[in-house]
């Protein structure tokens, strides 16, 4: 995780962060009119960008996704309290693929082992989608903006469609070209391909926390809280102590797992 700080010493990584943010904003803005939950989210084919760039640019994609989402909210008229949860969720969305891949495959290029590599890429993309759904769904529910089971599920399905249909094929098309140009994270960062000592444990914790958080959030939001999914529910259910208390351990475990990576 130390590369989140050390990357700012590299001019190339700073440029890649700006590039990632610009790409994300450009991909999000045209669809701000296709609103799914007013003030919160919209149809997002642009959700493919952070996962794609995470495999390419590493930690630069994490900051690019976080800042890019906030800028898109500002320009698209959706900036508000939920943008804080949006920054955190999108940051992890752009960070998790890079660290999970590095923990399992080091600085190897996606596709080196053929089909098994692409299956791993797809599974990592799924974990990343679950992560952003849990973090933003939790934050929005606590802020009283939308129930977890509404926003969390929309984000999950939205992002899964974008990543599996767009991110994986685009990664196959672009990785070698950018790697040959010296623009991938393992080329730019000195020692960037070396996974931390407890990285494998971090992988298990992140996956368990993300999946467990999603399941717990669904159970609490649907079964225990009796969430109303009518217009009133979308307009602003108050955040609940149950969601905060029930998901906080999973959020903490998720962050701890990322720290190990």
Verbal overview:
The protein has 261 residues and is mainly alpha-helical. It has a single domain, classed as Arp2/3 complex 21 kDa subunit ARPC3 (Orthogonal Bundle). Helices cover 73% and strands 2% of the residues. The protein contains eleven helices and two strands; from the N terminus they run ααββααααααααα. A two-stranded antiparallel sheet has the order 1-2. β1 and β2 form a beta hairpin. α6 runs antiparallel to α7. The longest helix has 33 residues. The radius of gyration is 18 Å and the shape is globular. The N and C termini lie close together (6 Å). About 5% of the residues have low confidence.
Shape: globular
Could you tell me the mean pLDDT?
Answer: 86
- In helices, the fraction of residues equals over 70%
Any low-confidence stretches, pLDDT <50, length ≥5?
Answer: 227-239
Rg from Cα? 18 Å
Q: Report the top-level CATH class.
A: Mainly Alpha
In the CATH hierarchy, the architecture is Orthogonal Bundle
**Would you count the extended β strands for me?**
2
Return the structural class: mainly alpha
Number of helices: 11
Distance between the termini: 6 Å
Briefly note the CATH topology name.
Answer: Arp2/3 complex 21 kDa subunit ARPC3
Order of strands, main sheet, comes to 1-2
Largest sheet: 2 strands, antiparallel
SSE pattern: HHEEHHHHHHHHH
Q: Compute the number of structural domains.
A: 1
Q: Provide the β-strand percentage band.
A: under 5%
Give the key terms.
single chain, 261 residues, mainly alpha, Arp2/3 complex 21 kDa subunit ARPC3, two-stranded antiparallel ribbon, 2% strand
């Amino acid at each position: 995780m130390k590369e989140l700080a050390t990357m700012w010493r590299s001019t190339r990584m700073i440029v890649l962060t700006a590039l990632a943010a610009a790409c994300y904003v450009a991909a999000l803005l045209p669809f701000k009119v296709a609103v799914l939950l007013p003030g919160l989210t919209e149809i997002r084919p642009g959700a493919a960008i952070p996962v794609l760039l995470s495999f390419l640019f590493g930690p630069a994609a994490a900051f690019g996704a976080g800042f890019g989402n906030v800028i898109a909210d500002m320009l698209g008229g959706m900036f508000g309290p939920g943008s804080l949860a949006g920054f955190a969720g999108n940051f992890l969305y752009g960070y998790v693929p890079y660290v999970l891949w590095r923990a399992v495959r080091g600085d190897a290029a996606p596709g080196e082992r053929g089909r098994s590599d692409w299956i791993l890429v797809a599974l990592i993309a799924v974990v990343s989608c679950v992560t952003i759904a849990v973090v933003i769904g939790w934050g929005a529910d606590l802020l009283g903006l939308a129930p977890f089971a509404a926003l969390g599920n929309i984000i999950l399905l939205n992002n899964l469609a974008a990543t599996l249909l767009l991110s994986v094929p685009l990664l196959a098309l672009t990785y070698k070209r950018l790697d040959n140009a010296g623009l991938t994270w393992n080329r730019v960062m000195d020692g960037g391909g070396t996974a931390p000592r407890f990285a494998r444990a971090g992988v298990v914790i992140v996956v368990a926390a993300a999946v467990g958080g999603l399941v717990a959030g669904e159970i609490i939001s649907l079964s225990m809280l009796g969430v109303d999914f009518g217009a009133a529910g979308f307009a602003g259910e108050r955040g609940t102590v149950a969601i905060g208390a029930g998901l906080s351990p999973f959020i903490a475990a998720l962050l701890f797992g990322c720290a190990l990576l």
